[in-house]
Inverse folding.
């Protein structure tokens, strides 16, 4: 029942996906094919697991708890994390658009994926590092056990409502399958 530990565990899954995406981008850069269903699954992971679930937990619960504990929202790490979440959403939208073009027969969209993935990977790797070395340490130090318990319960409820029962585990199975297929 450690909400910060849960967010860190989710980061490990995100890092696995980032490695997979790097290999997929390399395939597109070499004009090699990636199964459309696999690319769709990767984008679903980024949208549902990363954004709706993980970022949802941070934006709706962790960041407000830190703000209530005295961390300013606009200046400092919370504001920076929120900006990076938005930047990540824009990059994922660009990947989704390229995926749709690929599905409609525009093979040049693979090059867009090859160029966009490194920006996304770099953004998220830096983002995770900042969260774990700064923001999460602040949370561990500033939030008492009662608040952490409230966060844990809120995180669990968000998962049930946003992604549904068993989906978290299904995403981890997806990561295993994609890692076997594409490496990372």
């Amino acid at each position: 029942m450690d909400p910060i530990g849960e967010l860190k565990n989710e980061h490990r899954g995100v890092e696995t996906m980032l490695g997979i995406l790097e290999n997929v981008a390399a395939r597109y850069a070499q004009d090699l094919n990636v199964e459309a269903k696999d690319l769709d699954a990767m984008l679903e992971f980024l949208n549902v697991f990363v954004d709706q679930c993980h970022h949802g937990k941070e934006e709706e619960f962790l960041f407000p708890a830190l703000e209530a504990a005295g961390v300013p929202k606009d200046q400092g790490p919370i504001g920076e994390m929120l900006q990076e979440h938005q930047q990540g959403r824009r990059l994922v939208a660009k990947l989704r658009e390229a995926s749709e073009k690929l599905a409609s027969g525009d093979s040049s969209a693979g090059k867009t994926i090859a160029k966009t993935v490194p920006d996304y990977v770099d953004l998220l790797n830096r983002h995770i590092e900042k969260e774990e070395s700064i923001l999460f340490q602040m949370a561990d130090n500033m939030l008492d056990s009662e608040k952490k318990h409230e966060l844990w319960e809120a995180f669990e409820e968000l998962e049930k409502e946003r992604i549904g029962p068993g989906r978290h585990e299904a995403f981890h199975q997806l990561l295993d399958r994609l890692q076997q297929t594409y490496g990372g």
User: Anything to note?
Assistant: The helical segments are 3-29, 36-68, 77-103, 109-142, 145-162, 167-182.
